[in-house]
Amino acid sequence: MNRKVAVATLLVIWFCWSTPLSYAQEQAPAKTAMDAPEKSASAYRLDFTINEIEDGKKINGRQYSIDLNAGDANDLKIGTRVPVEGKQGEMQYIDVGTRIWSRVKETANGVALEVRSEISNFASPDQASHSMPLLRQMQINASTVTIPGRPTVIGSVDDPNSRRQFQLEVTVTKLK
What we know:
The protein is mainly beta.
């Protein structure tokens, strides 16, 4: 019995060593993009400013920053979750505040930037109806190519209830 096991073991060893390398290479799985050597991604800081302008003068500004790598997307969110009564007394929550989602990609002409922003807040008490709060919402969604170090206005919206305008501005800075 030991002799049969020894012969079988020798046959397996001989077969493994005698198999041509080309055969083994043909059986190897194809390389994918994940197998490629890692290339270091550039990191960027995005400085967002939401400017509130009335009659051509800046009256308020809020600033937000986020760091991300080229090719990645990140978002920031700040605000309050507000309970509202849904159907049959069921409580639901809505987000009130600021949310900015962004993605950067390096190009030959600069940095390609995609932004989705949502700004919501409570309307003034005189605009609210009954006991339910009235929410105001603004969205600016855009894509553009920016030059690092230069402020770029992504978009602007007029407030229909006043003479105010809101601008979303970003400055992209390449981190070392």
